[in-house]
Amino acid sequence: MTAHARPARAPRTPRRARSLQANASALYDIPGPKARARHLAYGLLTTAALLALAGWVIYLLVDTGQFSGVKWRPFTYAGIQELLLRGLGNTLKAFAFAAVLSLALGAVLAAGRLSEHAPVRWISTVLVEFFRAMPVLVMIFFIFVALQVQPLPALVAGLTLYNGSVLAEVFRTGILSVEKGQGEAAYALGLRKTQVMVHVLVPQAVRAMLPTIISQLVVALKDTSLGYLITYEEFLHAGRLIAINMDYTMPFIPVVIVISAIYIGLCMLLSWFATWVARHERRSVKVTAQAVAPPEAGSTMPGAPGVR
Fold it and tell me: What is the pTM of this model?
């Protein structure tokens, strides 16, 4: 008898290597040990440079007395606190109106650009391209000066026209990113175009659109600061009033620090909300177990033995 050689077993791949191979992509090469060490060194050097820059800025602020008690004492006054809170409330009010109206306008313009009727599609395209190319400050000034509109409606209208046109492209791109088979299957079931859009395409496109939508809303929140140029009493306008109406010891830098910190906090809160919504959307649908009836003997086929 001839002894058959047992095939050699392939060496086992380490767990870390298997995980890296699982994440491999045609467009991304897995970094080796030297590349990972180099990336770590780059990260450490960048972190050190940023910390050094932040330390230098803090040193300059301390050296010029920006953290002295006399410069921060006015923030303890009730009048200044009320002024800042009123300005913050006006900012949030303008942002709320602009966000809702921008989403609505973006949905309408996106539906127009996806329309099967050529005139509707052309008009929507012209509006989107025009308002997206027009500087938002120019639109706000035009509405406020030429049309004699009050500061709040002028600010909201300018933000709505610009951000709505940008969101229209976001909505259109998100809907077009859904596989064609989804819409074709819905049409095959007899659904109308509106039903296909509302019940099939839009819910699937929301996951792809959500990060960009929130990013654009953050832009709208920051652009509300343009309201101080048309005398709208928003948060930045309140800070400017504090800085120019106090004596020289009060200062511009503490006002900038306070206002910037609150703006950054609002943007981070909005970004956190977007992350929470995206995580909730990615969560798989839970399937509950259903009771299954026990198996039973089926009916006998006609013509079988014992069956008349």
Answer: 0.71
